[in-house]
Amino acid sequence: MGAPAVPGSPRERKPIESRTETVKDQPWNPEEIERWLLAEAAEDDSLAEAKLAALFAEVPRESPAPGFADRVLAGLARETAAQRRAWWRSRWFQGLSVSLVLAAGLSLVLGPWLLPPLFERLGWSELGLTGLMAVLADGVQGLGRFTTELALLTERLDRFSSYIFATTQTPGAAAAALVLLACGAFALKMAHTLVGGRRRSHAQS
Amino acid sequence: MRELDDSELVARALAGEERAFKEIVVRFERPIYTLILRMVRSSSLAEDLAQETFLKAYRALDRFDPGHRLSSWLFKIAHNTTIDALRRRTPDSVSLDAAGDDERPLAETLEDATSPSPELAAERKDLAAHLEVAMAGMRSEYREVLVLRFQEGFAYEEIAQVMGLPLGTVKTYIHRARKDLALRMSARGWGPREAETEGATGS
After folding, report:
1. 3-class DSSP state for residue A71?
2. Which one of B51, B179, B200 has the shortest CB-CB distance to A71?
3. Per the CB < 8 Å rule, is B25 touching A2?
4. Is some CB atom of chain A closer than 8 A to the CB atom of B173?
5. Taking Cα atoms as reference points, which of B122, B57, B90 lies closest to residue A23?
6. Reported pTM
7. pLDDT at residue B81 is higher than 90
8. Distance from CA of B192 to the nearest CA of A (A)
9. pLDDT by residue (tens digit) across A72-93?
10. A99: buried, middle or exposed (CB in 10 Å: 19+, 13-18, 0-12)?
11. What is the value of ipTM here, to two decimals?
12. In A45, A64, A134, A156, which residue has its Cα 20 to 30 A from A54's Cα atom?
C-alpha cells in the first residue's frame, strides 16, 4: 500500500537531481520527497504529515500581479461611488417618484372639479390668492409645531424606555416583572374560566 | 502599520483608516490568492476572486469576531466566494481538473523574497512545479485541504470551520488527499527505491 515507485517507470527527476550535489545551501533536497513517500508507504501517518508539511513549507506562495492591494482599494472606491450614484435607483425612491407623478396627474385632472366646492365650503373662495397663501403659511407653521411636539414626545418615550430597561437590569426588578407576568397570566386564565362558565350556563338556560 | 497586529488593523480599518485595510490586503494577498489559485487553476480568475474576497471582507469587517484569527475568517470568505464562483460558471469555463488551463504558468507567478540565491529560488520553483503538476488532476477539495493543512499550517478544526465541513470529513479529505498526491508523485517517477520500500513496510 501507500506510494511505492511505479514498476518500470523511469525516475524522471533530472532538473532537481542534477543539482543536488552542486547547491550546498539548499534547505531541501529531492530526498525529502522520497522520505515523505517512504513514510506514506510505511503507513506512518504522523511522519508522513510532518514530511509533507516540510515539503510544502519550501513551496513559495503564489503572488497576484503587482499592485494588487491598490487595485482592491480602487475597486472599493469604485463600489462606494457606484453606491452613491445609485441612490436614485433604490426602490423607495422609485416608489416615491411614481406616487408624486400620480398625485400631480390626479390633482390636475380632479383639481378643477373638486377644489371649487371645497373652497366654497371652507369659505376660502373669497380670500383671494393672498388669503390662500396666508392659510397655507398657517398650515406649514402648524405642521412645524406638530413635528417639534412629536420629536419631544419621541425623546421622552426614549428616556422612559431607557429608564425601564435600566431598571429591569436589577434582580429585584426582574423578579417583580416575573411576578407581574405570572399575576397577569393567572388573571387571564381566571377571566377565561369565568367567561367559559357563563357561556355554558347561558347555553343550558 | 506593519508592526500592528491583525485585530488592531481591523479596528483601524473600521474607524475608516484606508491604510490599515491596505495593510490587511498586503498581509494576506499571497495566501488568499494561493488558495484560490489552487482551487480554480486560472490566475486571472483567481485574482478576480481574491479581489472579491477582500471587498466582501471590507463590507463585513464590523462582523469580524476579534476572538478568532483574521486569517481563518478571510480564508472562509475566500472559500465561499470561490465555491460560489465555481457553481455559477459552467464546467466549460472553469476546468477544475484539467491541467495547463492557467494563463500564467505557475513558475512565473512564484516569487519568494526570502530566497538567499537564484539557485535556491529555482529549486523551490522546481519543487512547486512538481507538486503543482501532480496536484493538477486532484479534486479541488483535496487541493484546498492540502494548501490549508500543509502550506498554511491550519489545524483540522480551523479547516473544518473554513470549509464548513464536519471534522471527520476534513480528516478523511486530508488523508485521502495525501495518499492521492503520493500516488501521483509516484506515478511521475518519484518514490523510494524498492529496497527502501521493502524495509519500510517490513515485508
Report:
1. helix
2. B51
3. no
4. no
5. B122
6. 0.58
7. yes
8. 5
9. 999 988 888 877 776 667 778 8
10. exposed
11. 0.75
12. A64
